[in-house]
Amino acid sequence: MKLKSELNQIKNFIIKITRKKNNLYNHLAFTSKSSCKNKILILTNVKNNCIYNYINEAIKKNIRAIVTDNKIDIRKVNKDIPILYSKNLSTNLNMLLDDIYSFPLQNKILIGVTGTDGKTSTVNYLAQCLSSKLIKKRVGIISSLGNGIYPSLKSTSYTTPPSHILYDNFKDFDKKKVDIIIIECSSHGLDQGRLNGINFNTSIFTNITSDHLDYHVTKSEYIKAKLKLMRQTSESIYINDDCMTLKKIKKRRNVKFIKYHFTEKNQTRLKDKIYPKDLILKYLCNNYDLSQETLLATLEKLKPIKGRYTYVSKLNKKIIIDSAHTPASFKNILKYIRSVEEFKKKSLKLITVFGCGGDRDKTKRKKMGTIASKYSDHIYLTNDNPRQEDPMNIISQITQGIIDKSIVTVTLDRKLAIKKALSKATKSHLVLISGKGDEKYIEEMSKKVPHNDIKYVKMLLR
User: Fold this and answer.
1) What angle do CA 389, 392, 395 make, to 5 degrees?
2) 194-252 pLDDT, tens per residue?
């Protein structure tokens, strides 16, 4: 009752200021950087030392009122405007938006996908299957690959966007009669409450290892953030049983737990695509009246995802470009490459090009070096996204995990490192270029330097 009263208070405040009752979302702004004229600014999760900068910036842009979960000292506000304080605004924002956007998730099937690795690929392959001629569902996806109705996606800078962007997409999905919505749920998005109050019919846990410790600090906090998705799932939870962390998680009552395996024993060639076949088969068999044989025929037609195990072969060069940037995903792809027929016959040697991101989890750098040295015949260490950090500091931490330094060539310029690797490669080599996949730039200092591994490799091969 208290929650309903608080949400009604906010909604009535918005109606009073705008003198509108419908399409209230058109009269809201969620950042002072956006268009604020004659709108109401909704501010949540803002540090106290920043709040007045945001408010006064919005005032310059003719904002009409403020709703915030920060207690405001009106003496620090440059203009006398209506300000509503709502203590639990951040926690309850999605419930407010659900009402304001006229409950766009009603009668929709929601699937949440989380994990350290494989989230984006899982979202994409599942969307391909559900929107195929076999099942014919209209699928909306929110993912780091893009947001939209599959396969028409608009690029995004978020994995799981803030609540107002989520609800803009939900409104569009509802308008365009989407049947199923698949959301890639990042640990940041879950921890920051961007998905609060959203009920998922199904959730999928691809794996949980360790990542983003620069944000979460400890692995236990990282796992805790991921597991929030379980509490928001009402029907079934799919768990990758190859992951030790997920094996230890206690089952929730009243929710069906379904175990699946990621290992694909029938993939024996370098050009084979990697996808969670067991998961997709189980999900489709459980939810649609289709035989496994019929589904397998559809799976064979799945299109590979650009930047995820992208295989290029030209001019006697064999190259794989992949986005793997965590120890687990990096090890998985290296192990897989070493397991295929060409390597079992010892007819190929592996050259690996990679780096690690700056201003992020530093604990994984030495691990990545150890993994690379175990599976590679030669390593080119280069820039990934150094950001504000000294690139050589990143490289030195990676090399701490490499015992035999003679197999390492350090070339900070990523283009030059790739060029050197391809020049060294003969028909007896495979080159793995890892870390960035289909990303469009390198973050260096305060700049975004245009670069795409796939386009650059294809340009060199031309």
Assistant:
1) 105
2) 999 999 999 999 988 867 767 777 888 988 989 999 999 999 999 999 888 888 887 77
Bridge partners (DSSP) of residue 408 are: 379
CA–CA dist 109, 234 (Å, integer) = 11
Token pair, residue 300, equals 């064979």
139, 113 Cβ separation under 8 angstroms = no
Listed residue (99, 94, 126, 101) closest to 112, CA to CA:
126
Angle at which helices 89-100 and 2-18 pack, to 10 degrees?
Answer: 60
pTM of the model: 0.89
pLDDT 10s digits, 384-414: 999 999 999 999 999 999 999 999 999 999 9
Contacts for 21-25 with beta carbons within 8 Å, 24 or more apart?
Answer: 24/100, 25/97, 25/100, 25/101, 25/164, 25/167, 25/168, 25/171
**How many C-beta neighbours within 10 Å does residue 122 have?**
28
* Rounded Cα distance, 163 and 44, in Å: 11
First to last CA, the chain: 67
Over residues 122-175, the pLDDT tens digits come to: 999 999 999 999 999 999 999 998 999 999 999 888 889 999 999 999 999 999
CB burial readout 143-172, b (16+ within 10 A) else e: bbbbbbbbeebeebebbbbbbbbbbbbbbe
